[in-house]
Amino acid sequence: MCDLMPASQPAEKIGKMKKLRRTLSESFRSIAFKKEDSGFDEICVTKMSTRSCQGTDSVIKPLDTIPEDKKVRVQRTQSGFDPFEKPASQVKRVHSENNACINAKSSSAGKESPKLRRHSSPSSPTSPKFGKADSYEKLEKLGEGSYATVYKGKSKVNGKLVALKVIRLQEEEGTPFTAIREASLLKGLKHANIVLLHDIIHTKETLTLVFEYVHTDLCQYMDKHPGGLHPDNVKLFLFQLLRGLSYIHQRYILHRDLKPQNLLISDTGELKLADFGLARAKSVPSHTYSNEVVTLWYRPPDVLLGSTDYSTCLDMWGVGCIFIEMIQGVAAFPGMKDIQDQLERIFLVLGTPSEDTWPGVNSLPHFKPDRFTVYSAKKLRQAWNKLGYVDHAEELASRFLQCFPKNRLSAQAALNHEYFSNLPPRLWELQDMSSIFTVPNVKLQSESGDSIQVCARRNSHGKASSGSKH
Fold first, then answer.
1. Do residues 383 and 249 both lie within one domain?
2. What sign does the CA torsion over 48, 52, 53, 58 have?
């Protein structure tokens, strides 16, 4: 509980304030947040600050993992935001840490406490504030999807660059559930290798998620450096990917949409997991989930065959595909037609499964043995020769690319694989919010052919052709 009450208050006044707190707690649903200061209330609720109202950055659990008796309803003013808003505008969220902040603020009867003043900064009524649409300036469009448009923007509060994910709201349909899910999960995740959610803005027409700005993604990075990345850079990118995944998997969260486009790369080389629209908190006992999740090229065979009972091993198949793509320079299994074609490409390398190699495969909805050519398993270097040039790379890739889900290596175990044995030991001692590049001598290498890439031109097929450096 926030210790915002001065200790010198008379006993009678303290008693009245305690009674007021109890009254406010009982009618918590009817409380509306006022935003008189420079965004303190908004920061307090959305966990934007590096310190919470209690003085520590405690993690809010994702909605899916919160017991029913811990969920309460909250009403907000129109200018406020609620990441869990349903189409009927009903809200559920945890209140254990924020209730004290609200009660203390309400019960102080207009008397701002010293601790509260430390969190807020003086501002006039017209100053930019967090949670306000006019606090951000759109600079350029970065991309557009089926339900959201992403812009590069600038914060008028602190002048920093941001990415604005503007989600269009349909009056009949309400807030897209993917947006609710993404906001609810990200607000509780604080890690150097996960994109940071700065702010959330809710208006009648749009829901805007304000992220830290990261200038490129792994897909664009690989396009800029065709033919495979520098082996040392592959190792650092993979280490960061596993680090971020280990963090969310320990919190029983699956990403479910791992692909190069969803891995952001900063100008210093930091890799950050992004786009949690399909992420899901995995609860116990196990639920079944939609098998229409991961993009086809990075989708594991168990999901392709109709399995809906999966766990963190779902993400680890995607890690294997991305690992090979970074080393080889081409997608591991680039299916061109449909699910059948995708599975054929997988079985061509890993072998067509049977009950002996994959217990339970015959019970999967879409597995019909007579539909698939029978292939025997090959060494991975036969399909992707560059795996053979890097120590322990082939063995690690084979631990990810297991058709039988339970045989796949976990993110935490992979971090301790011999493939990473030449990295500085301090990398395993870092705090969650510390970048790997804070460790001395850890940096990205210059990619081969950079001088040529500067003036490389695209031919009619979209492939880079070498041009003159002049």
1. yes
2. positive
Give whole-number Cα distances, 246 to 147, 221, 313, 343, 360, in Å: 29, 23, 12, 27, 27
Can you give the CATH number for the domain in which 157 is found? 3.30.200.20
Both 108 and 255 in one domain: the answer is no
Coil vs helix vs strand at 365 = coil
Which residues have CB under 8 Å from 146's CB, separation 6+? none
What is the β-pairing status of strands 197-202 and 161-168? unpaired
- Residue-range definition of the domain harbouring residue 181: 133-212
Number of domains in the chain: 3
- For residues 128 and 157, is the Cβ–Cβ distance under 8 A? yes
Query: What was the pLDDT predicted at 231?
Result: 97
DSSP category for residue 464: E
Distance of alpha carbon 97 from alpha carbon 91, whole angstroms: 17
- H helices within 187-259, ranges in order? 218-224, 231-250
Interaxial angle between packed helices 313-328 and 231-250, expressed in degrees from 0 to 180 and rounded to the nearest 10: 170
Query: Could you give the CA distance from residue 41 to residue 272 in angstroms, rounded to a whole number?
Result: 28
pTM to 2 decimals? Answer: 0.68
20-78 confidence digits (pLDDT tens): 555 544 543 333 333 334 333 333 333 333 333 333 333 333 334 334 444 333 333 33
- Report which of 105, 82, 100, 93 is spatially closest to residue 34, judged by C-alpha positions: 105
Contact 387, 381 (CB under 8 A): yes
CA dihedral 331, 337, 342, 348 (to 10 degrees): -90
Residue type, 67: P
CA distance 98 to 21: 13
The first and second tokens of residue 301, run together, are: 């065979």
CA–CA separation, 136 and 139 (whole Å): 9
Q: Residues with catalytic annotation? A: 257
Give a yes or no: residue 233 inside a domain.
yes
